Automatic annotation (TrEMBL):
Membrane-related topology note: Single-pass type II membrane protein
EC number: 2.4.1.122
Pfam families per record: Fringe
Keyword NADP listed: no
Cell compartments where the protein resides: Membrane
Keywords assigned by UniProt, alphabetized: Glycosyltransferase, Membrane, Nucleotide-binding, Signal-anchor, Transferase, Transmembrane, Transmembrane helix
InterPro entries: C1GALT1/C1GALT1_chp1 (IPR026050), Fringe-like_glycosylTrfase (IPR003378)
Name recorded for this polypeptide: N-acetylgalactosaminide beta-1,3-galactosyltransferase
């Protein structure tokens, strides 16, 4: 999960509700000083200011960090913001119809601004299979021309993965 310091109250709500049904969860932040000991978090964005226009850089770094530092063995990775509520049982049932060893980038597909491939709206979150995360972490992350900046992080991620 990506979060901003000013919204830590939402982290407490997430911790008390849907996140408990995840196999594993990690909050990524730029400053965890207001998070309690019961909230597993990683201070990953300390060099990035807390700004909407830095969401792309935070997301890019988060996807890489989770895959390389936390685990490359999960079948699925779900990126959500701190104002997202997920019905995990429905998400699990849907993802079970896909092979995590194939590259998949799944979410609410929007065609506006990217009519050919579309992009998954970041507000509702999106899932990436293990194979897609491997491609992102091992190939796209290190090549800025393949993963260029865009002010809308969801559009930028879609342009990078083209899956």
């Amino acid at each position: 999960l990506l979060l901003t310091l000013r919204l830590c109250t939402q982290v407490r709500a997430i911790n008390a509700t849907w996140i408990r049904r995840c196999d594993a969860s990690h909050f990524l932040t730029n400053n965890g000083r207001f998070l309690n000991d019961f909230t597993p978090y990683h201070t990953v964005f300390s060099a990035l200011p807390d700004s909407y226009f830095k969401l792309f850089w935070k997301t890019r770094l988060a996807l890489y960090y989770v895959y390389t530092n936390i685990s490359s063995q999960y079948d699925w990775y779900y990126k959500a913001d701190d104002d997202t509520y997920v019905i995990l049982e429905n998400l699990r049932a849907y993802l079970a119809t896909f092979d995590p060893n194939e590259p998949h980038y799944i979410g609410f597909r929007v065609k506006r601004r990217m009519p050919k491939h579309g992009y998954n709206a970041g507000g509702s979150g999106y899932a990436m299979s293990r194979a897609a995360m491997k491609i992102f972490a091992e190939q796209l992350f290190h090549e800025k021309s393949l993963c260029p900046y865009h002010e809308w992080e969801d559009l930028a991620v879609a342009r990078s993965v083209h899956l």
